[in-house]
Structures are given as C-alpha cells and as structure tokens.
Amino acid sequence: MSNEQIEQQSNPLKKYYRQPKQFVKLPSNYRFYTEGSISVPESREVAVYPMTAKDEMMFKTPDALLNGQATVDVIQSCIPAIKDAWQMPSIDCDAALMSIRMATYGTKMTVPITVPKTKIEKDLELDLQTSLGGILAAEYKDTFLWENMEIKTKPLSYAEFTKSALKSFEQARLQATVVDTKLSDEEKIAQFNVSFQKLTQLNVDMVVQTIESIRVDGQTVTDKKQIKEFVDNTSKEFFSAIMEHLEENRKRFQLAPQKVTATEEEVKQGAPETYEVPIAFDSSNFFA
Questions:
Q1: Distance from C-alpha of 159 to C-alpha of 140, rounded to nearest angstrom
Q2: Which DSSP symbol is given to 83?
Q3: 251-to-22, 97, 141, 148 alpha-carbon distances in Å
Q4: Apex 122 CA angle, 120 and 126, nearest 5
C-alpha cells in the first residue's frame, strides 16, 4: 500500500483540505529573514491558503491583536512557507495580509469613507489586486551615504515593529492619564517629561535596530552597542538623514491613495470633483 493510500485511509477527508488560492513573491525578495524562519520555494512564490474558522476567530481576540500574536498565527497558518512570522520583515506584512484576505474573500473590499467637505458617508470599493501590485513592485533601498560614511539599513522585523508599537501605545496612554489625573501642574509636567524622554529614547532605539552596519575609514562597524553609542553622540544632522532614508523606504511600501470621482449629487453638496482617499489596513477590521 502506498503512503498516499495510507494517508487517505487514516483520514478520507484529507483530500478536501483547503488548497492554496494565491501564489505571491513577497516584496522583500526574502532578504532580512533569519535562518530557518522561512522556506523559500524554487519558484520564489509562496503559496497562500484561505483562512480557517480558527484563523478568523483569532482576529476577534483583542489581546492577541494588540500584541501581534493573532497576526503571527494567521500568517503562519495561511502561508506555511513562513515558519516564524515574528522574524518577517515588516515590509512583507501588508502584502502577506492582503494576499490572505484575497485568498479567503476575493479581490474586492469595501471601506467606509466620508466624502470631503460634506457629511456624506458611503462605502468605497477597492481592488486589492491592484493595491497589492504596487507593494510587490516596491524595492527596499538598504544603503545611503552621509558625509564619508556608508550606512546599511534593514527593515524592522515584525517582532521589533510590534514591540515598538506597544511601547508607543503605552507611553501615549500614560500621557493621556497624566492629563486626566488630579495631579498638580508641576507633577503633571514632571511625569509628562519622563514620558516624553521615554518616547524619544524609543525612537532612537528603533533607528539603532534598523542600522545593519556603518562603513567608515576602511572599517565596517556592526556591533549594536557601538552603533548605539554613535547614534547617542552624533549630530542631529545624521539622525535627520537616517530618518529621511527610513521615511523614503516607508513610502515605497505604503498603499497608494485611492483616487475617487465625486458624483453630481456629491458635488452639489460641496464635494470636490475628484479627491484622494488614504488607504490603511487595520487587522482588527481588515478581516471582519
């Protein structure tokens, strides 16, 4: 008896398991993954399966959404080639989630919008395949020059991105709490300053994480401690230069705004004839 016959005999329903609905080449081109975190097929296109009922329920668990666990579990379920989604470069995240949504629900998606300069609310239909195409065509620029230095960067991993986002959320919540408490103005200012310093340090730490190496005077520095010491003690011009570099990369992988033509009735109520709607996906409602 063949192995296939044995498997079918053990579970006759196995041949009815979900099948891949999408095949995509992720925008990172599989750079920046740690060893063992992904199995890249020869075709360079990973298979994307539709979500199971369990996957859908994961996106309805607030705590799992907040700490990123739901996103990790669903990506690993629907894109089995990704063995450890925590190590996935953040530039692949939107492409992975969009591919999973299309595999599950199809290429169309509606998002609620308010027509500019009016109180009109309506649903806007998006073509996810077109939106995905823009992201897949983007290329991460890892190197830039500053004075006599060559700085090589990498995108944050999903784990680093989530950790940074959680810390920002906690600090923002602390600032809101300080405003609402019955503390004296002096105490509020003191606590606000502490919170602000932590947010500033968070931004610095994020930049350090993105720097892979700095080459200068014939030497290449990769030690994170030395890089952090440099970032802490260099001029603000360097910090501005690397932030500009990171922002340019972020824009390359940002979803293009949707161009909309207003109806005659909308124009009568004050809407511009054409306008753009920024598109941002939130996993808490993206799969609702």
A1: 19
A2: S
A3: 25, 18, 12, 26
A4: 140
Closest CA to 115 of 236, 276, 238: 276
Nearest 5°: phi and psi at 49?
A: -100, 155
Distance between CA 124 and CA 127 in Å, rounded? Answer: 10
Tokens read off for 41: 């097929």
C-beta of residue 71 within 8 angstroms of C-beta of residue 283: yes
Which residues have CB under 8 Å from 157's CB, separation 6+? Answer: 32, 34, 86, 87, 88, 89, 90
Spatial contact of 110 and 124, defined as CB atoms under 8 Å apart: yes
Sign of CA dihedral 25, 26, 32, 33: negative
In angstroms, the CA 116 to CA 269 distance is 10
In order along its 288 residues, the chain shows pLDDT tens digits of 556 555 556 888 888 899 999 999 999 999 999 999 999 999 999 999 999 999 988 877 766 667 788 899 999 999 999 999 999 999 999 999 999 999 999 999 888 899 999 999 999 998 999 889 989 999 999 999 999 999 999 999 999 988 887 776 666 666 666 666 677 777 777 777 777 777 777 788 889 999 999 999 999 999 999 999 999 999 999 999 999 999 999 999 988 888 999 999 999 999 999 999 888 765 555 665
DSSP 186-202: HHHHHHHHHHHHHHHHH
Task: Determine the Cα–Cα distance for residues 206 and 199; give it in Å rounded to an integer.
Answer: 11
The angle at the Cα of 61, spanning 171 to 37, to the nearest 5 degrees, equals 80
Per-residue DSSP letter, 141? -
pTM of the predicted model over 0.85? no
Q: How far apart are CA 85 and CA 37, in angstroms?
A: 7
Distance from C-alpha of 262 to C-alpha of 29, rounded to nearest angstrom: 38
How far apart are the C-alpha atoms of 144 and 88, rounded to whole Å?
A: 23
